[in-house]
Amino acid sequence: MPNRKWMPSHLQDEQVPPPRDSPSDWIIGPAGDCWLIAGDESADAEGRENSRRAIAPGETLDFDWNEAGEDFEALIRADGTFELPAGGEPPEATHYWIPYDSDTMAFSWKDFVAAQAQVASADGDLVEVEAYSWSEAPVPHRLVVENGAARFEPVEAEAAAHV
């Protein structure tokens, strides 16, 4: 799956802000001796403020990555069989769903098909499926500040002193 994007782990929830191209893209700017990390900018003012973090140079913050796959169509039948009109196999992913229908979320293709088969007609229902993956574990990144510019660099999990 191409197109890896990143999000601070503390923002993982049922509703998440759009992941960004790099962990460093979450840095808003300096805040005294610390650097301010963006929160959920789509939230109301209180939610934005409460989800922001200030961290000092050298401290680490956990990030999760997300890779979005391409949407595809699947014909799923009540007996649990399926076919992809475009051919081939479904992409490997950690999440499958009918876009914007959280009740259809499944964490494997097998589970997605089983759930959809329960509501499918005998002849099958054609559904649009979105497959994507999230990292299995957070990836710690250390805040590095040089010449007044800040960036995040990945660190080994054992060496991380988390915020």
Report on this model:
With 163 residues, the protein is mainly beta. It has 2 domains: 4-65 and 137-159, no CATH class; 67-134, no CATH class. 10% of the residues lie in helices and 37% in strands. It contains 2 helices and 11 strands; from the N terminus they run βββαβββββαβββ. The protein has helices spanning 45-51, 109-117; strands at 4-8, 27-31, 34-37, 53-55, 60-68, 72-76, 82-83, 95-97, 125-134, 139-146, 149-154. The longest helix has 9 residues, at 109-117. The two termini are 30 Å apart.
Secondary structure tally, helices: 2
Strand composition percent: 35-45%
Q: Could you say which overall geometry the principal axes of the C-alpha atoms support?
A: elongated
Number of domains as seen in the coordinates: 2
**Poorly predicted spans:** none
Range of helix content: under 10%
Largest sheet: 8 strands, antiparallel
Compute the CA-based radius of gyration: 20 Å
Calculate the terminal CA-CA distance, rounded to whole Å.
30 Å
Number of strands: 11
